[in-house]
Amino acid sequence: MSGDHGHGGSQVNSGSKGSDSHKHKDKHKDKEHRHKDHKKDKEREKFKHSNSEHKEHSEKKHRDKDKLRHSDGSSDKHREKHKEKDKDKERRREEKIKSSDVDKPKKEKENGYVRDMSPAAIKSEPEEDNGFYPSPHHKNAKREYDDEEFEFKPKKVKTEHDKKAKKRKHEYEEDEEDEDIKPKKKTKDKKVTEGKKAKKEEEEKWKWWEEERYTDGSKWRFLEHKGPVFAPPYEPLPGNVKFYYDGKPMKLSAPAEEVATFFAKMLDHEYTTKDIFRKNFFKDWRKEMTSEEKSKITDLNKCNFSEMNEYFKAQSEARKQMSKEEKQKIKEENERLLQEYGFCIMDNHKERIGNFRIEPPGLFRGRGDHPKMGMLKRRIRPEDIIINCSKDSKQPKPPPGTKWKEVRHDNKVTWLASWTENIQGSIKYIMLNPSSRIKGEKDWQKYETARRLKKCVDRIRNQYRDDWKSKEMRIRQRAVALYFIDKLALRAGNEKEEGETADTVGCCSLRVEHIKLYPKMDDQEYVVEFDFLGKDSIRYYNKIPVEKRVFKNLQLFLENKQPEDDLFDRLNTSILNKHLQELMDGLTAKVFRTYNASITLQQQLKELTCPDDSIPAKILSYNRANRAVAILCNHQRAPPKTFEKSMQNLQTKIDEKQNQLSAARKQLKAAKADHKASHDEKSKKAVEVKRKAVQRIEEQLMKLQVQATDREENKQIALGTSKLNYLDPRISVAWCKKYGIPIEKIYNKTQREKFAWAIDMAEKDYEF
DNA sequence: GTATCTACTTAGGATTCTTTCG
DNA sequence: CGAAAGAATCCTAAGTAGATAC
């Protein structure tokens, strides 16, 4: 064990933050390090849904200056308290678990199982509104899964013997399966001798979506796994690879050397030129040094890692050059690891784990202007890991000579293992793959919630428009914020701890400096210009005309404020979500993003798809619809490094094609002249042939040009995120069915696995 | 009401694998 | 066939949001 000294057990808050006692809402930061460098500057058109115009009325102003600000000099977070707190926490958790009915015998039917309908699970009475969904989720009852109740097919409780009704598949799902199942098979023929009531059950394809869901808030009955895979131990550098300090070679102790290699590996990365990164790295590196090293190495600028850097480059080059057999071997080893650790058994089914490897140690790479970039991410040991599994499972064994931090049996959560990370002190989890039942159900549910929003969005929109006129400042702020969230698909914008993360915002945390108001701009009135860094420090830039009333409200909110003050000083996400919850059961700010994304896709597909188009043309339309959503959601990417070049290549092809074309045209002309002169059949034919050639080349050229446009449009837009997280897959599936597009043209294998439920259940007439 | 903790979704970039091109 | 381009997958950071503590 090389890398990790000293950080003992209770790392809940050990080290790091010194920021503790200015927690109040006041935001006086030095503007200094506030996103100077917006890396992405392209303006983007926005998609708006049409809002019916409301008449303007004269505006009565409300003044509300007394903000919520105050300082409280919070003293309650002293470290001494932590131990007690921890104990307390533990006690509470234990109680919680106990009270859950994990162990209640009643639901375990010795052979297969039936999901429980415990008292807590009994559905509550249907509710007002459209009467469409049954249960308001009672505050104290766990959220139940019954949202989508009425959308579901009749449920059957399947036991796993139930050999699936494969036959019910629709044609192209069949296709899909054919080509899909093979790769799968190979990972499949392991016998699962699950300890439980299991049997071989190589579930051909388990249709969890046809089964009952838990309604008592529990996530599983049985859970067994082998624990995580740890990062390989540090391998010291060979003796001939040296580190130089101040020009002289210096042998480092193993711990110091390991951390040095983290830096050395990143030498080519821009990170290592950043001051904060270097500062943080150096500070943490010194912690790993022996006292001797510490006294010698005092200046990072005198450190020369280039030999180490060369070594690693050579290594990766060598890896590439390995022979087929060697590569094969590595592949097999990985496969073995995957088979052993990559799956778990949850409720009688073998499910793929999403991330069964523990994150290796390294240097923290925050995004944007992250104050902690370069800090050392320490090595995670078994002693840091909490294992979660069911009591009656075979517990995972820690590596020889080690212990888990804890083994618990909490079926109210979905994770298999967790640890506390040392940079932010947050908890990391090992969870299942998106194709798993537990993720899939949740995903499905998400879209059902969004569909419920569709049914009442008009009402909600009317309401917030009304609220723009409220006497109460907080209501107006809430209403304007909600308008932005709805219209612009902004994120909610939770507060963040200052100085702990990059300075980014969402709707509720927008500051005065992030918007500009233009009563008139060109031919438009009441234009708001947004310019801020959102999640992942991606810039959001947009100019958008808003309704007069919104504009007036914004002016009001801005009065007497400094640039660094909150725009919505009377609002936060918790207030907003509480309000939304009252408007619709299960409604939160993020549902608007899902809803607007999905509805936009559906509507764009309707608009853009020409039934007579060829398949590639239809797919182009699909991508355009997808792109509309990505633009709405501001999903950007850095233009690929090779972008310019690949564009050039394409352009070259286009040029060639153009030359071909003019050549062909010339020939056509010549042929025509020839024909005119001779008027014979032969020359007439020649003309036709040439004409055809020209036409064909024109088409090819067109295609290339479309491709170029498409690629250019996609330069800094990422389609994947919306496809994976915001677009109800049933819309895409239905579209494919309707137009006879093979589903693989839209979803790759992984995506098909994730969306198996949608592929199985959506028909061509599916409406979001 | 506010701060903190926890669990889980969403996100872009890095890395690896596969296909295409010369 | 090898390199380059492109697609898929991996990785893990950075959000949201609910629960709980204070």
UniProtKB/TrEMBL annotation:
Catalytic activity: ATP-independent breakage of single-stranded DNA, followed by passage and rejoining
Biased composition (Basic residues): 22-39
Active site: 726 (o-(3'-phospho-dna)-tyrosine intermediate)
Subcellular location: Nucleus
Catalytic EC class: isomerase
TM spans (from-to): none
Region annotation Disordered: where it falls in the sequence: 1-202
Annotated DNA topoisomerase I eukaryotic-type domain residues: 363-740
Enzyme Commission code: 5.6.2.1
Coiled-coil residue spans: 313-340, 647-714
A Pfam family annotated for this UniProt entry: Topoisom_I_N
InterPro entries linked to this entry: DNA_brk_join_enz, DNA_topo_DNA_db_N_dom1, DNA_topo_DNA_db_N_dom2, TopoI, TopoI_C_dom, TopoI_cat_a-hlx-sub_euk, TopoI_cat_a/b-sub_euk, TopoI_cat_euk
GO terms, biological process: chromosome segregation; DNA replication; DNA topological change; rhythmic process
An annotated GO cellular component: chromosome
Molecular functions per Gene Ontology: DNA binding; DNA topoisomerase type I (single strand cut, ATP-independent) activity
Basic and acidic residues bias spans: 40-113, 151-163, 190-202
Alphabetized UniProt keyword annotations: Biological rhythms, Coiled coil, DNA-binding, Isomerase, Nucleus, Topoisomerase
Gene3D superfamilies: 1.10.132.10, DNA Topoisomerase I, domain 2 (2.170.11.10), Topoisomerase I, Chain A, domain 3 (3.90.15.10), Yeast DNA topoisomerase - domain 1 (1.10.10.41)
Keyword presence, Zinc-finger: no
Protein family (similarity comment): Belongs to the type IB topoisomerase family.
Function, as annotated: Releases the supercoiling and torsional tension of DNA introduced during the DNA replication and transcription by transiently cleaving and rejoining one strand of the DNA duplex. Introduces a single-strand break via transesterification at the specific target site 5'-[CT]CCTTp site in duplex DNA. The scissile phosphodiester is attacked by the catalytic tyrosine of the enzyme, resulting in the formation of a DNA-(3'-phosphotyrosyl)-enzyme intermediate and the expulsion of a 5'-OH DNA strand. The free DNA strand then undergoes passage around the unbroken strand thus removing DNA supercoils.
Protein name: DNA topoisomerase I
